Amino acid sequence: MASRCVDFFHKKYSCEVDGEKFSSEEDLMNHYRTVHHKLILKCQKCGKEFIHEKDRLHHVREEHEKEMDARVHKSEHKHTETGNPQDRVDSNMKNFGDNF
């Protein structure tokens, strides 16, 4: 009986729907999938899974913020060429194909 009480206190992940407790986040995710048929949201960067969109967004901001800050912003990337973008595509396309 004492070991059962110890297990209860070590289970820190609980289901918000039915209150069942789990010792790992993975067990909680499996519970949501199988018992409640809930959609599990994945981080596109690392694959970590979340039950709530707000938790996934928080994870992305906290864990992947450095990667996001390192990206070049569109406003910082200036095109030096002028003219119609299709004209540039057409001029580059002449290098491909059978036209001589």
From TrEMBL:
<protein>
    <recommendedName>
        <fullName>C2H2-type domain-containing protein</fullName>
    </recommendedName>
</protein>
<feature type="compositionally biased region" description="Basic and acidic residues">
    <location>
        <begin position="62"/>
        <end position="91"/>
    </location>
</feature>
<dbReference type="InterPro" id="IPR036236">
    <property type="entry name" value="Znf_C2H2_sf"/>
</dbReference>
<feature type="domain" description="C2H2-type">
    <location>
        <begin position="41"/>
        <end position="69"/>
    </location>
</feature>
<feature type="region of interest" description="Disordered">
    <location>
        <begin position="62"/>
        <end position="100"/>
    </location>
</feature>
<dbReference type="InterPro" id="IPR013087">
    <property type="entry name" value="Znf_C2H2_type"/>
</dbReference>
<feature type="domain" description="C2H2-type">
    <location>
        <begin position="13"/>
        <end position="36"/>
    </location>
</feature>
